[in-house]
Specification:
496 residues, alpha+beta, Outer membrane efflux proteins (OEP), two-stranded parallel ribbon, 11 helices, 6 strands, disordered N terminus
Length: 496
């Protein structure tokens, strides 16, 4: 009875569909282990809503530059990154936002600086005494009653006017707020450069992985043709049954279709890379760099976390936004304080330039609000709410930076191990295929074993390509999470 139960259990295990094992990350032949793809830390920019979907992500767009040529242009990783930093739409928008913040800071500064102006005037007038009530005055002795109008007369004057705010705490705090906002925008633009380097690097690595898949598919097609010819010969010599020839033809057609699919995927990946770096849509190019395995040394979780807190520009931008919000609260409170201003003018006036007389005027003013209907209190409450929100966002971002670093580090370790395992499995699968072909050629086994061995090689090779891609993307994600994607480009991406 126990033997029957054991046989039944083994039968059920053997009957598990291969698709179920594949979904669980287990290759039926034992040559492949699914490697998880690293997360995309580019979503941790200062504008996450813009990265919600690819269609709305400015870092996946560009302003195409140049004209397409008929030749195939070699494109290195360095050249791709340089083009991305020049033409990527996300970086262009970030730079324009910095220019707008700079303009806002200059506008706030202008309120603190003297306002100096020159005015020249030539006037012709005829004043109505009746309009202002002078015609009702009693007659002037020896002159008589005033006429209805003054009659036509002309005059000229030239004045130099000066307006200066002597003291205004509100204007000073508003300027400090705009200066901090400009610093935040500058840090955001610097962070955008890191995002562009990351986006270009990942897109370049994706094309490199697709190129490897195309090369693998071509090699598999050549092998399938060779096996198909071998099977035809053995069927013709009556060494193998005809069904082996049918299986070989199915395998050959499958290899042909696989090549079509991976070639199509390669072209789409190249279009994506071209869109990111601003290449003309019809420009053909080939990768000049290969995405070979290159490990990272002298990195620890503690060191990368410390670097992230030091160099993440989006974190520095959030801190500057907190300072700007603090100054805005101070500016709203300063509306209750008195303000002092000086107005002065000097120049000449007369009927013409030759008869000018010196004229001048100097005045000082002090003003302070008495009753504003609660407007200042409402402005303070609104600015305080904005400050609380900025502080919460800053604290959240610090936690998100630590999260990005930790997740990227885990992905880096896992994918590094996955590459090494996948490389060994590919070598083992290739040995198994060689032995299966020898056994089939010697008539020891049938063609089913050869097909299984060939599929194992295909799965192992695909797993190696995916594992290598995942490792390279994990390196890029680690650099991005640390905020050093551009500064330490050579170390992480292997460029020049």
């Amino acid at each position: 009875m126990k033997k029957l139960i054991i046989i039944a259990v083994l039968s059920l295990l053997l009957a598990v569909p291969q698709a179920v094992l594949s979904q669980a990350g287990i290759d039926p032949q034992g040559y492949s282990i699914s490697t998880p793809r690293p997360i995309n830390p580019a979503a941790s920019t200062t504008n996450p809503s813009a990265l919600a979907t690819q269609g709305q992500n400015p870092y996946l767009g560009s302003t195409p530059s140049g004209k397409a040529t008929d030749e195939v242009v070699p494109l290195s990783l360095n050249e791709a990154v340089e083009r991305g930093l020049r033409y990527n739409l996300g970086l262009i928008e970030s730079n324009q936002a910095s220019a707008e913040a700079r303009a806002q800071r200059l506008r706030a500064l202008s309120a603190l600086l003297p306002d100096l102006s020159v005015k020249g005037e030539q006037g012709f007038e005829n004043i109505s005494f009746q309009e202002v009530g002078l015609s009702k005055l009693p007659p002037i002795p020896g002159v008589g009653p005033l006429p209805a109008t003054s009659g036509n007369f002309g005059y000229q004057d030239a004045l130099l006017s000066l307006t200066q705010s002597v003291y205004s705490a509100e204007l000073h705090d508003r300027y400090r707020a705009q200066r901090s906002a400009e610093q935040a925008s500058t840090f955001s633009a610097r962070d955008a450069r890191d995002v562009v380097v990351y986006a270009v690097g990942v897109a370049y690595l994706q094309v490199a992985a697709s190129v490897a898949r195309v090369e693998t598919a071509r090699a598999q097609l050549a092998t399938a043709k060779e096996l198909d010819q071998q099977t035809r010969d053995q069927v013709r010599n009556e060494v193998s049954p005809e069904i082996d020839s049918v299986r070989a033809q199915v395998e050959l057609q499958t290899a042909e279709q696989r090549l079509v699919n991976v070639t199509n995927a390669l072209e789409k990946d190249k279009l994506t890379l071209g869109r990111i770096i601003g290449l003309p849509l019809n420009q053909k190019f080939a990768l000049a760099d290969s995405a070979a395995y290159r490990g990272l040394e002298n990195l620890t979780l503690e060191s990368v976390t410390a670097e992230a807190l030091q160099f993440r520009s989006d974190l520095a931008s959030a801190e500057a936004n907190v300072r700007a919000a603090e100054y805005r609260v101070g500016a709203e409170k300063a509306q209750r304080y008195p303000t002092i201003a000086v107005n002065a003018n000097y120049g000449g006036a007369g009927t013409n330039v030759g008869s000018f007389n010196s004229v001048y005027g100097v005045s000082g003013s002090i003003s302070f609000p008495i009753f504003t209907g609660g407007r200042i209190r409402a402005d303070i409450a609104e600015a305080q709410a904005s400050l609380n929100r900025r502080r919460a966002e800053y604290e959240d971002l610090k936690g998100r930076v630590a999260y990005d670093v930790r997740v990227a580090w885990l992905d880096l370790e896992a994918s590094d191990s996955g590459v090494k395992v996948a490389e060994k499995n590919e070598a083992l699968a290739q040995r198994a295929l060689t032995q299966s072909r020898d056994r089939y050629g010697n008539g020891v086994t049938n063609y089913v074993e050869v097909i299984q061995a060939q599929e194992a090689v295909t799965a192992a090779r695909e797993n190696y390509i995916q594992s290598l891609y995942s490792f390279n993307v994990a390196k890029a994600a680690q650099a991005r999470s640390m905020g050093v994607a551009e500064r330490r480009f050579t170390e992480f991406f292997g460029g020049k």
